[in-house]
Amino acid sequence: MRRKTILLTxxxxxxxxxxxxxxxxxxxxxxxxxxxxxxxxxxxRVKTLLGAMDVLADLRAIRGDILAGSTLGVPADDLSRIRxxxxxxxxxxxxxxxxxxxxxxxxxNVAGAQNVLAFVRGCASLECAAFLSTVYVSGKRRxxxxxxxxxxxxxxxxxxxxxxKAEMERVVAAAMxxxxxxxxxxxxxxxxxxxxxVAGFNAVHHAIRLLYNGLAPMIPGGAGDPVDVVSxxxxxxxxxxxxxxxxxxxxxxxxxGAASDTLADVLGETVRAxxxxxxxxxxxxxxxxxxxxxxxxxxxxxxxxxxxSEVLRGATRSIRSFxxxxxxxxxxxxxxxxxxxxxxxxxxxxxxxxxPRIVKYCLDTNWGAARC
Length: 372
Prior knowledge:
372 residues, alpha/beta, Rossmann fold, two-stranded parallel sheet, 13 helices, 15 strands
């Protein structure tokens, strides 16, 4: 039986590194991990990411760049071999910044995907190429967003990240007519459900920090609105399984879906965890943020911009592009993904069960500063 050969882009990213670790632990795989140029060699960067784990796969770190055209910047000595051998592609590279100018976000997420599509057209043994996206291509829609739905339906986007990913999806969907492709939309990834380790700190982690520092007096939304977050181990396990075993030509939601916890419960569990792991914080009697309607929150933001301290201005700016998503509550349909994942027993862990471990990791590492 021919060994699968997987090309992984974005191997050093927040999601990509967890995917890499999962792949590297398997003897039945060859992996080509695409790594952008830096002061470190690709091999050293991958060794740093994998740490002391036993690498069982045939793993090669390849210098490349998804913005370097249809060859992805892969050295000529490796290019023909990779194109000949690759059976699966997981495209995890791109920008997850919420604040990039739209042109820059498009360059990273749309043009990068176009280059990967051009590359895979030359892969003679290709069985499936999975492009990672986000459930928030739904933008400001409300209600149920199914795996068969696409885009913002005219309601607009909260940030340029969402818009650029929606545009990327249109490019990939058009190419599904003649290539074995799939789109995997990930929910917000918080960290490992067992260890609490966070590979990449995002807006949710920063919001927890603002709450800890007493700089989040209110957040928009409704107490009973769903907050969809997932663990990194679920996200990586689901991504790998879907890429290898699910039917191409489809969209899959790797999300909590109908099992999402409410905004009030997530906020309450966060406050409880902060109090448990930092008893002195509890004694500071930091006020629990109020959950308020969007118009009330916008009035607060305007007042901070006009008269607030620079510290509070910076705090509201840092989560504004995320907070407004809370004001557009939605539930993500997961039927297609859940059916494909059920055969492997892969399912999301309830967020309230692993959220305390994420909070503890944030505190223990000072939101990543202590691990540098």
